[in-house]
Amino acid sequence: MLAKASVALLVLALSGSGAAAQAMCGDPPIGPVIPPPAEIAQKTPAQAAAARHNAFMDIKTWQGALKSYRDCLNATVDTDKRDLGEAQRAEKPDTKKIDKLKQEMTDSGHAWDTSVDDEEKVVNEFHAVQVAYCTRSDVDRATCPKT
Fold this sequence. Notes:
Oligomer: single chain
Structural class: mainly alpha
Strand content: under 5%
């Protein structure tokens, strides 16, 4: 698990969410560590159910933090758009300020996109766990999606 968390931290560090987005909104929340499907298959039915449930709850908590992070990114872009409009309408537009605001909006957009990619990856990992759980014959499948 430690190795998986280390990889996640490295990916987030290299993703380049943008200096402006980081300055305003901080780092994106770190995604939960999802157990691999093979681990779910090796657990007892009760342990597998608990691991799946805990992963689900961790994801929901993380998604709440992602929402706050994305709300901050949206607010940052809204402020930059307003400031950009004012800068462009100025009697003598400051091209450095205009370029900086445009770059901040681009960086915030990249940070948003990276957070969506991270969320999709985590949800796909959870789906693999759910499939591993629901294909077992010794577990309560009442919580499994109907096929």
